[in-house]
């Protein structure tokens, strides 16, 4: 485990996708589950120390149990991967959902995660409770101009030439587009993240395959609460992508942030707006996950398998004994218990005791 603050801990786990690729994901926070289909430029451990991402991890963890993962070929996930197709990326998300033992959850697509989240929600309409897009799109080339296509080609050339260089002048082009208002420290962190996230070959291959992925045709199929939040002067993914998403998803709400940063920074006025919108958007899920007062309510909130595990815990079984009794792995038992705690609004070292006490209090 790694600590961000004394009271914030992330648990790093690994799922296995359908083609055998290992996908690293991390869980932290408390409350209803929020699965983040993050941007490709990520590294679960490196992000944890970040002057750019730290405030997201801390603040979102206060209102939700946050599950985020490194894309295939990136971060702590398996490297050297050449298949970055939409189907492969959706399979990765499905693998994380199943490995984490998620049933219903809010889904948030950041940046290049848009097509994947859209496709997942269309294929599994009974799983996401709500869908949020942040700085994202349904297709990278949707409404792309000839000038845009020329720029994409120039970016690929920059990656080939400058990604692996020990100095960061080529990578700084991308950093300055992501956070044009960032400090030098924040810029240097994004410079370094690019090399830590993946090698140059993976950056080129994954980028070229993502550019062809477009889930726009799926948007009319979506029927769930949707929030589209986007910086109005985003230099990486322009605001017209947000308008397109909101206009084609029934009932979607569009929120424009007064920022030029693709990643809104902690000290700019747009940040509290982002958190206010996300908190309000997740509130219905938080209401469902509020602590319950009797065993019938516990039974209605947790799955039958989770209830079996909780009853054995109440009988004094430890995780090893529960696993043996139910023919599960200890890891699976631990994940089911984490889901129980999230549904009951519990966290910390006393979560197990509190969950058992709540079950026993009216049984």
Automatic annotation (TrEMBL):
PANTHER family: AB HYDROLASE-1 DOMAIN-CONTAINING PROTEIN, HYDROLASE, ALPHA/BETA FOLD FAMILY PROTEIN. Residues 295-360 form the HTH luxR-type domain. It comes from the Bacteria. SUPFAM superfamilies: alpha/beta-Hydrolases (SSF53474), C-terminal effector domain of the bipartite response regulators (SSF46894). This is HTH luxR-type domain-containing protein. InterPro entries: AB_hydrolase (IPR050471), AB_hydrolase_1 (IPR000073), AB_hydrolase_fold (IPR029058), Hydrolase_4 (IPR022742), Sig_transdc_resp-reg_C-effctor (IPR016032), Tscrpt_reg_LuxR_C (IPR000792), WH-like_DNA-bd_sf (IPR036388). Pfam families: GerE, Hydrolase_4. Gene3D superfamilies: alpha/beta hydrolase, Winged helix-like DNA-binding domain superfamily/Winged helix DNA-binding domain.
């Amino acid at each position: 485990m790694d600590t961000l603050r004394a009271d914030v801990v992330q648990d790093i786990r690994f799922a296995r996708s359908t083609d055998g690729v290992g996908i690293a994901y991390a869980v932290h926070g408390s409350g209803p589950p929020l699965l983040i289909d993050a941007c490709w430029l990520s590294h679960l451990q490196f992000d944890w120390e970040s002057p750019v991402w730290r405030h997201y991890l801390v603040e979102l963890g206060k209102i939700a149990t946050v599950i985020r993962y490194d894309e295939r070929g990136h971060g702590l996930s398996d490297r050297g991967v050449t298949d970055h197709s939409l189907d492969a990326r959706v399979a990765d998300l499905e693998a994380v959902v199943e490995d984490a033992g998620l049933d219903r959850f809010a889904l948030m697509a950041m940046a290049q995660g848009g097509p994947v989240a859209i496709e997942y929600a269309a294929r599994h309409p009974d799983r996401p409770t709500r869908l949020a897009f942040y700085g994202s799109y349904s297709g990278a080339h949707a409404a792309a101009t000839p000038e845009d296509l020329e720029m994409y080609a120039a970016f690929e050339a920059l990656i080939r030439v400058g990604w692996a260089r020990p100095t960061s002048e080529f990578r700084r082009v991308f950093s300055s587009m992501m956070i044009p208002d960032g400090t030098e420290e924040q810029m240097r962190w994004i410079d370094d993240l690019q090399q830590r996230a993946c090698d140059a070959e993976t950056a080129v291959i994954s980028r070229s395959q993502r550019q062809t992925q477009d889930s726009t045709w799926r948007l009319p199929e979506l029927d769930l609460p949707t929030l589209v939040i986007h910086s109005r002067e985003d230099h990486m993914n322009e605001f017209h992508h947000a308008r397109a998403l909101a206009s084609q998803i029934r009932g979607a709400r569009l929120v424009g942030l007064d920022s030029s940063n693709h990643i809104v920074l902690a000290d700019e006025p747009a940040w509290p707006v982002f958190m206010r919108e996300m908190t309000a958007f997740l509130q219905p899920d938080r209401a469902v996950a509020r602590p319950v007062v009797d065993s019938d309510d516990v039974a209605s909130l947790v799955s039958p398998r989770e209830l079996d595990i909780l009853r054995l815990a109440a009988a004094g079984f430890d995780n090893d004994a529960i696993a043996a009794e139910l023919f599960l792995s200890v890891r699976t038992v631990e994940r089911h218990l984490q889901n129980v705690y999230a549904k009951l609004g519990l966290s910390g070292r006393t979560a197990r005791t509190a969950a058992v006490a709540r079950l026993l209090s009216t049984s």
